[in-house]
Fold:
Amino acid sequence: MQEREFLIREERGRDLEDLMYFTFNAFRSSSEGMLINCMRPFVTKRFSLLAEKGGQIIGQALFIDAFITKGEETLRSMAVGLVAVLPGFRQMGIARALMDDGLIKCDESGSPLLFAITEPSFFMNYGFEFAARHDLHYKWPRFDSQLVVKELQAGALSDIGGTVDFTPQLKEIPNIPTIGS
Structure:
């Protein structure tokens, strides 16, 4: 196994300012970075792994609480809030390393399911599948086609269904201006 040219470590309290800058730069070509930074206060972080090289944050995998509501019952689970790598460091195995280490921690957490809202192809490599197949839908329907789920405990996806929510305090999507407008 080849030794990594970067360090993977857990996020520390003093990393927040650097992470805001990192997120903006990782998503520079879209409003996604601004949306992520705006939503950070509304998610409950379980853990965050950072890839670092030479003291610079070059990647992050953020794992957050997810809630599934079915009728009056709410089940707490987890979600991948983001996996991001700075443009100059992509295609070096950093996202894969962050996910590999993150999935180990998720398995240890006792959470039954792991969700993500994303471009699904990356996550399919890790055993994720479309959540709608299990009658799981995000609270904002426009994200349903991007909602994927991975079973962390055998049988957790059988007869579950419901509405998935990563940000229970937010009732609507923040209005983020488009870069350049």
Summary: The longest strand covers residues 56-70. The chain has a mean pLDDT of 90. Strands lie at 7-10, 45-53, 56-70, 73-85, 113-117, 129-130, 136-138, 147-151, 162-165. Residues 94-109 form the longest helix (16 residues).
